């Protein structure tokens, strides 16, 4: 008995099936279109023009199993970036796994604020620290735009550090980074490998209150709890960041910190950074207009 070929769809049929399935799963129409397009481009290694041509001619044909498996996973809430193993951040393509947070567009605003602050001295050498680096998104994005900068990428997760190192190699930045393991947010002492002084510190710490985690959107609940749980009030990392910056940040160095939550909670974060030590520079809004971070300069 001959094996029957696996059922397949034309390229356009697959695109429409993905788009409709994602809308039924709760995605906005524009988001569903973008995700269906990116998935098929990723699946077959197509650039934008090749994708349009594939839609026109209906080829390559797409196995139905790949369409249905993808939609089942998305209905379960598995993040898109985990399914394809990569995410884009400020134009950089980063490898991601469930060991790290998915880099988000809102965090790009933190990097953009630092770039704007340092626009006047782009050629100056700086050594910076990316606290809780995860995939390396924040630190590597800065290095990609500041060729004379170097960075320490620090995380308590060894799996995250392996991924950050991999991303640094992919982006040709490996010679400008040090990969450091250690716990800054809860350990009583600083990791010994930290530099004596930094010209800048950037951090997206865990800031979700422990009790709020079960109510998070399904996609977020797939992400590592270590990178989400900020303690009973979601504020646990911030006093440690403040103390580290006071001890290790050079005068004039920048401190960029992501925040989240209700306005009262965010106001408490700002109060943890003494104006006698840190000169306030700006509030950083995300793309939705919500307060997402603070930027200071060390006095």
What is shown here, in short?
Keywords: Methyltransferase, S-adenosyl-L-methionine, Transferase. With 299 residues, this protein is of the alpha/beta class.
Query: Distance N terminus to C terminus?
Result: 79 Å
Total domain units:
2
- The number of helical elements comes to 10
* Proportion of residues in extended strands: 15-25%
InterPro entries: DNA_methylase_N6_adenine_CS, HemK-like, N5-glutamine_MTase, SAM-dependent_MTases_sf, Small_mtfrase_dom
Protein name: peptide chain release factor N(5)-glutamine methyltransferase
EC number: 2.1.1.297
GO molecular function: nucleic acid binding; peptide chain release factor N(5)-glutamine methyltransferase activity
Describe the structure.
The chain is built from 10 helices and 11 strands. By secondary structure, the chain is an alpha/beta fold. It folds into 2 domains: 69 residues, Hypothetical Oxidoreductase Yiak, Chain: A, domain 1 (Orthogonal Bundle); 202 residues, Vaccinia Virus protein VP39 (Rossmann fold, 3-Layer(aba) Sandwich). Strands 7-6-5-8-9-11-10 form a 7-stranded mixed beta sheet, with helices on both faces. Strands 1-2 form a two-stranded antiparallel sheet. It has a two-stranded antiparallel sheet with strand order 3-4. A hairpin with a 2-residue loop joins strand 3 and strand 4. It is elongated, with a radius of gyration of 21 Å. The mean pLDDT is 95. This is peptide chain release factor N(5)-glutamine methyltransferase. GO terms for molecular function: nucleic acid binding; peptide chain release factor N(5)-glutamine methyltransferase activity.
């Amino acid at each position: 008995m001959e094996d029957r070929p696996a059922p397949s769809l034309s390229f356009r049929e697959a695109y429409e099936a993905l788009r409709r399935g994602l809308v039924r799963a709760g995605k906005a129409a524009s988001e569903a279109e973008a995700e269906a397009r990116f998935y098929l481009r990723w699946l077959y290694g197509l650039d934008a023009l090749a994708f349009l041509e594939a839609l026109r001619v209906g080829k390559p044909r797409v196995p139905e199993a790949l369409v249905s498996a993808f939609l089942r996973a998305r209905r379960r809430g598995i993040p898109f970036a985990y399914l394809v193993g990569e995410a884009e951040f400020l134009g950089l393509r980063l490898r991601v796994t469930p060991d790290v947070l998915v880099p988000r567009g809102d965090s790009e605003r933190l990097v953009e604020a630092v770039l704007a602050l340092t626009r006047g001295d782009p050629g100056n050498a700086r050594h910076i620290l990316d606290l809780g680096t995860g995939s390396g998104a924040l630190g590597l994005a800065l290095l990609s735009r500041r060729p004379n900068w170097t960075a320490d990428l620090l995380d308590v997760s060894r799996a995250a550090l392996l991924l950050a190192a991999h991303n640094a190699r992919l982006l040709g930045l490996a010679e400008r980074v040090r990969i450091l393991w250690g716990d800054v947010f809860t350990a009583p002492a600083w990791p010994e490998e930290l530099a004596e002084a930094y010209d800048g510190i950037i951090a997206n710490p865990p800031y979700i209150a422990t009790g709020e985690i079960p109510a998070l959107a399904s996609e977020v609940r797939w992400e590592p709890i270590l990178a989400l749980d900020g303690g009973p009030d979601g504020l646990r990392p911030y006093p440690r960041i403040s103390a580290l910056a006071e001890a290790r940040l050079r005068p004039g160095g920048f401190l960029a910190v992501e925040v989240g939550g209700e306005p009262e909670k965010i106001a408490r974060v700002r109060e943890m950074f003494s104006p006698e030590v840190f000169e306030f520079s700006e509030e950083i809004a995300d793309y939705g207009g919500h307060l997402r971070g603070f930027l200071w300069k060390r006095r």
